[in-house]
Amino acid sequence: MGKRILIVGGVAGGASVAARVRRLDEEAQVVMFERGPHVSFSNCSLPFFLSRTVEESDDLVLMDPQQFKKQYNIDARVNHEVLSVDRAAKTITVKDLATGQTTQEAYDKLVLSPGAVPVMPRSIEGIDGPNVFSVRNVVDIRKLDDYLAANKVQDVAVVGGGFIGVEVTENLRLAGKNVSLIEAMDQIMAPFDYDMVQILHKEMLDHGVKLILSDGVKKIDAAQVELQSGKKVAAQAVVMAIGVRPETELAKAAGLAIGETGGIKVDHNYVTSDPDIYAVGDAIEVYHKLTHKATRLALAGPAQRQARAAADHMYGIPHNNNGVIGSSVVKVFDQNAASTGLNEKTAKAQGIACDFVYVIPGDKVGLMPGSHPLHFKLLYEYPTGRLLGAQAIGKGEADKRIDVIAALISTGGTLEDLKELELCYAPLFGTAKDVVNHAALVGLNLLYGRFRQVPVTKVRELVESKAFIVDVREKGEYAAGHLVNSVNIPLSELRGRMAEIPTDRPVYLHCRSSQRSYNAVMALQNSGYHNVVNISGSYLGICCYEYYQDQVTGREKIVTAYNFN
Question: Positive or negative, the Cα torsion across 231, 234, 236, 237?
Answer without folding.
Answer: negative
